[in-house]
Amino acid sequence: MSQRRALHRFYFFGLIGLVHAYVWLRLVPDLGAVPGLASALSVVLAASAVLIPTSMLARRRSAGRLLLGAIWLGLLCMGLFSSLFVLTLLRDLVLAGASALAWFGTGGGHAVLALPSALFVVVASLLMSVAGFVGARRVARVVRVDIPLRGLPAGLDGFTIAQISDIHVGPTIRAPYVRRIVDAVNGLRPDMVAVTGDLVDGSVADLVAHARPLMELMSRHGTFFVTGNHEYYSGAHAWVDALRDMGMRVLLNEHEVVRHAGQELVVAGITDYSAHQFDPAHRSDPQRAMAGAPAGAGARVMLAHQPRSAAAAAAAGFDLQLSGHTHGGQFLPWNFFVPLQQPFVAGLHRQDGMWVYVNRGTGYWGPPMRFGVPSEITLLRLVRARE
């Protein structure tokens, strides 16, 4: 097993090294006229090629300050290199087009664009990384959404749900960051709070102290939680116990009935769409989550980490599904690839008569970077639909 793990690490480092070599070969020679910049980029790429895989392999280990510092540097490099890589690919397409035009005698070709385009890639990548870092580290903005439901009883009209999702407490998201989220949610004075998975990226032993500020979430009917795929990477059973000890109501293919202003609201939650790959007993099951719910409930709300649970949730008879998982893509251009896996990327949608709201994530995963895709705390309000 150790030999296989060592081989996987060798391939991982090798792949990272190859894509870094590609960027170096495509940019540094053309930056020769700016020797200081060419040298600096070479150093950054060399460090990045080592720090990125090191940080990824170390993220779920207990970490002292030195290792945490290395992880931070590696994840910052990941954000910067992602931009460098994508923009370098786009630059190569532009240069190929320019060369083709020059061959037909209608343009200046590669030589004219080589230096300015290389400079553009470096400067744009730096600006995107700085803006993305600021966007990731600031407190998520509040997005207010009305959900019109037909037949909603008057007692539930105006019922509010504060949704947070995909915080990813881990090496770069610690207790102070989580506390700022809690303060923002509490300022909304919601009727209930929904946490739709991917709360953590690491073990209970390493991170429970940093998740503990969530105990201070305040609402009339409490905080409800469902597992995301990252809980299963991080020891889902231990986290379920820890979050219950912290006062959250963890819903594993089950529901609770909230009584509000004389009316009943079904709040159900399912395990992550992929949970059965880690524990067959945790297979996601919307029908089971609905079983035994009062037929006359004023509204039925499903918490499901992944949007692709929506078809099964609609078939089970829910009125609204709250999801996360996608991060809205988190930063360009990855938001364009999310639809390849999920039916919805962000915002409010319809699935077979059921509303689906996808939160873009309240934190971030991996590099501390959000560019073009802001994080959010969602305040959803149930309202009576106009007939």
Description of the structure:
By secondary structure, this protein is of the alpha/beta class. It has 10 helices and 12 strands. Helix content is 42%, strand content 17%. The strands form 2 sheets. The protein has a 6-stranded mixed β-sheet with strand order 1-12-2-3-4-5, with helices on one face. β2 (160-164), α5 and β3 (192-195) form a beta-alpha-beta unit. It is elongated, with a radius of gyration of 24 Å. The mean pLDDT is 92.
Binned, the helix content reads: 40-55%
CATH architecture of the largest domain: 4-Layer Sandwich
CATH class call of the largest domain? Alpha Beta
How far apart, in Å, are the first and last alpha carbons? Answer: 63 Å
Run of helices and strands: HHHHEEHEHEHHEEEHEHEEEE
User: Within the CATH hierarchy, at the fold level, what is the topology of the largest domain?
Assistant: Purple Acid Phosphatase, chain A, domain 2
Count of discrete alpha- or pi-helical segments spanning 4 or more residues: 10
Instruction: Work out the oligomeric state of the chains in this entry.
Output: single chain
Largest sheet properties: 6 strands, mixed
Poorly predicted ranges = none
How many domain regions?
2
Global shape: elongated
Structural class: alpha/beta
Strand residues, percent: 15-25%
Number-wise, the strands total 12
Write down the overall mean pLDDT. Answer: 92
In the sheet with the most strands, the strands line up as 1-12-2-3-4-5
CATH superfamily of the largest domain: Metallo-dependent phosphatases
Protein name: Calcineurin-like phosphoesterase domain-containing protein
Keywords: Hydrolase, Membrane, Metal-binding, Transmembrane, Transmembrane helix
Organism: Pigmentiphaga kullae
GO molecular function, one term: UDP-2,3-diacylglucosamine hydrolase activity
